[in-house]
Amino acid sequence: MTIHDFTSQSSLLNQFITEMRDVSIQKDAMRFRRNIERVGEVLSYECSKVLENTNETVTTPLGTKDTILPVKDVVICSILRAGLPLHQGILNYFDQAENAFVSAYRDHIDDGDEFEIVVNYMATPSLEGKTLLLVDPMLATGRTMKSVYDVLLRQGTPKNIHIISVLGSTEGLNYVKKHFPEDTHLWIAAVDDQLNSRGYIVPGLGDAGDLAYGTK
Ligand code: URA
Hints:
This protein is an alpha/beta fold and 216 residues long. The chain has helices at residues 12-21, 29-48, 83-93, 143-152, 170-179, 208-213, and strands spanning 2-5, 53-60, 63-70, 74-80, 98-108, 115-123, 131-135, 138-139, 160-169, 185-192, 194-195, 201-202. Strands 1, 4, 5, 6, 7, 8, 9 and 10 form an eight-stranded mixed sheet that branches. Strands 2-3 form a two-stranded antiparallel ribbon. Pathway: Pyrimidine metabolism; UMP biosynthesis via salvage pathway; UMP from uracil: step 1/1.
């Protein structure tokens, strides 16, 4: 796996993430969603630089120009519900992409720290031979990402896989590195060192789905 981790780069990404973490700013759900969306836009642009490309010629009013464009057979697949603002940010840039949605949740056993991942809804086009952008803002344990990927494979084998995430843990990164194909790319704005016993990233930012939609 090729990991593109922007944690230590000073850039606007850090501003967006810092606002998302900040308890005095993150209460503004609209701003929180917009910040996730902005991270999606920046990571889409970065990702577009390494996608397979095609040579095309464009006709202008004054002539023609040869150009190089990223492939168009892109499917964005997000994990409900926290994935929705990130999905929108990516779709803002990959605006011709197909879209897929999967619902997955953590089922805590006896309300304890142990949990299983339940995938209970999927709407997706065929993925056979396409470029899959697999989207979840929080790459905490990596287990949700892997469970969703296993279910998605029933819809065909993508040619290229790019995981796009806002914030991850070192453990989550190691997990996906181990369980995804070697040629997968991971694009992530920031990585924290720790996970707590309930699988939350520390210091992290809290529950991204609740913060994005003002639920508890
Ligand atoms: N999901 C979240 O929303 N936050 C975490 O820290 C981990 C998983």
